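Support request from a user on the community tier.

User writes: "When I paste my structure tokens into the form, the page sometimes reloads and wipes my input. The last time it worked, I copied everything first. Here is what I submitted, just in case something in the input itself triggers the reload:"
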């Protein structure tokens, strides 16, 4: 974070202890918002430099803010630098958790969101022991995390039988929509190449682009770095109604990704909570590993206008 994120924490001293002795100077709401905006747009040199260094180190998963790896040989480096995994949030490091509490807030910035949900998870769990179902989901999480990291996204959270990923200028630059669409394609292709039960796992993805509020969300004792707003809600809805083996990409995200828009590919789908239908492009796996747009009404699953699919 700006104003002390990543730097200035003396070795051997925990961030929480330092925070008690040196509280952050109060900022006006406007100044705090501008500080966050600069961070999220990738204009904060300290965090940008830190992410560049940590991204060169092998290991996954990583801190969703600074990209410090939590596993692999590099985890010892990040622990020495006080960026080991936070016991309060397994997707963030201790320093970033301290920084969020030190400067709570956020800003509205452009970005893209991806949701990937397992279809028919109730039936999958019914036919397996709890341990077997857990192992299957863990393999899905690993594939998703790899695809998200490859496209410089942020693994925001695990959702039981799904994942949420953020793509903002800090991590993906102006190509955040292209990164989100690329993640959906890669994840569906990886599932097709997988073996055993994982290959038969029906996963649907939803992608949307627009402005959203990103920052420290939650309470003092349970804070997280995440996003909220209409853009996030739409992506979640699209993920919930996408058929197994397909991705529903909003037209806004598709065009922002710079993808060509073939004729008769967009279709209008009904999204719960919205008064007007939403134009989307449906991606489905064809031959090989690529996911390609399919003609309107020719999706892999039931009609996308369904308000809710069976879980």
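"...and here is what came back when it finally went through:"
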């Amino acid at each position: 974070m700006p104003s002390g994120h990543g730097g200035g924490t003396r070795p051997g001293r925990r961030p929480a202890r330092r925070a008690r002795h040196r509280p952050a100077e109060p900022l006006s709401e406007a100044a705090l918002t501008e500080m966050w905006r600069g961070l999220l747009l990738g204009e904060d040199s300290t965090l940008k430099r830190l992410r560049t260094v940590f991204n060169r180190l092998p290991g996954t998963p990583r801190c969703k803010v600074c990209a410090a790896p939590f596993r692999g040989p590099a985890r010892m480096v990040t622990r020495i630098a006080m960026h080991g995994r936070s016991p309060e949030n397994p997707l963030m490091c201790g320093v970033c958790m301290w920084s969020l509490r030190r400067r709570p807030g956020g800003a509205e910035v452009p970005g893209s969101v991806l949701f990937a949900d397992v279809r028919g998870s109730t039936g999958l769990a019914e036919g397996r022991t709890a341990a077997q179902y857990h192992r299957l989901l863990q393999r899905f999480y690993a594939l998703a995390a790899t695809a998200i990291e490859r496209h410089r996204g942020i693994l925001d959270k695990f959702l039981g039988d799904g994942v949420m990923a953020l793509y903002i200028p800090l991590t993906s630059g102006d190509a955040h929509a292209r990164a989100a669409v690329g993640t959906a394609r890669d994840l569906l292709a990886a599932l097709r190449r997988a073996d055993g039960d994982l290959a038969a796992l029906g996963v649907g993805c939803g992608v949307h682009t627009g402005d959203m509020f990103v920052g420290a969300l939650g309470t003092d004792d349970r804070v997280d770095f995440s996003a909220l707003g209409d853009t996030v809600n739409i992506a979640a809805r699209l993920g919930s109604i996408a058929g197994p083996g397909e991705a529903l990409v909003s037209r806004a995200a598709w065009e922002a990704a710079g993808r060509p828009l073939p004729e008769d590919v967009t279709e209008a789908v009904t999204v719960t909570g919205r008064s007007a239908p939403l134009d989307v492009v449906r991606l489905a796996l064809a031959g090989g590993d690529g996911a390609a747009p399919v003609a309107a009404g020719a999706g892999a699953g039931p009609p996308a206008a369904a308000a809710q699919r069976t879980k």
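Agent notes: The reload is a front-end session timeout and is unrelated to the input. Confidence is low (pLDDT under 50) at residues 6-21, 300-311. The chain has two domains: 15-104, 107-293. Escalated to web team.
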